[in-house]
Amino acid sequence: MCKDCANEATELVRRRQILGFASVIAGGAVFGLSSGRAWADECAPFLADAQAATTPDQAVQLLVDGNARFTSGASLHCDLLGEMKATSEKQTPFACVLACIDSRSAPELVFDQQVGDVFVARVAGNIPTAEILGSFEYATKVAGAKAIVVLGHNHCGAVKGAVDKADVGANLTTLLNEIEPAVAATPLEGERSSKNHHFVEAVAETNVRFAVSALTEKSTVIKELVDTGAVKVVGALYDIETGKVTWLS
Fold this sequence. Notes:
Layout: H1 3-25, H2 48-53, H3 56-71, H4 80-86, E1 95-99, H5 107-110, E2 118-122, H6 130-142, E3 147-153, H7 157-164, H8 170-177, H9 180-185, H10 197-217, H11 220-227, E4 232-238, E5 245-247
Helix pairs in contact: 1-3
C-alpha cells in the first residue's frame, strides 16, 4: 500500500470519528448541513486502505460514534446503492457484531453503519455458536475486521425463556440451554422468573460477558489475534427503550 494511500486512509478514519462527534454536538447538523444529511467523507465506502489504517480501538470508537448519532437523531442518510456498487468486488468491514435476532436491535441501525462497514451475525440470545465462531474467524483473520462486539439487550426474550426454562421445542430448548450457565452464575434475589426484571437484565449482562470470553476460549484463531493486538473483543448492552449502547468493561 503506497504511503500517500495509507495517509489518506488514516485521514478518512479520523474524519469519520470527528464528524460523528460533531454531529452530536451540533444536534444533528454536520458542519452546517441539515439534520440527518452527511458530509461526503462520512458516507465514503470503507475500503481496504481505510480498514488497514484502522486500529482495534478506532474500530470500536466508530461504533461508539455511530450510536451517538443514532440516539441523537442524527443518523446518516447515505447513498446505499452507491456503496453497494463500490464494495461489490470486495468487502473490508472494520468490525463484527454478534447480536440477538430481536427486531428492535439491528446493529447496522443501532450503530448507524453503512453497506460494507460491519459483519453481523444474529442468533437468539447472542450466543457464539460454532457457526458464528467460524464466521468471525473468517471476518477477522481473512477479511481483516479489527473488532468484535457482543451486543446484548434488555427485555431479551431468549434470556427470559432461559430463566423460565421454557420448553417450546427441541431446537429452541437446546439454544436456551446455552444461556443456562449465565443464569446459574447470576446472583438471584427473589424468584427465578422472567417477571423478576432485575434478575433478567443481570442475566443478560452475564450472558454477554460469557460470550465475550467464549470467543477466545473456543477459537484459537480469534485468541491469537486478540493476544497480538490485531483484534479487540468487547461486550455491550443495548437499551431498546432509549437506543443507547452501554459498553462493558
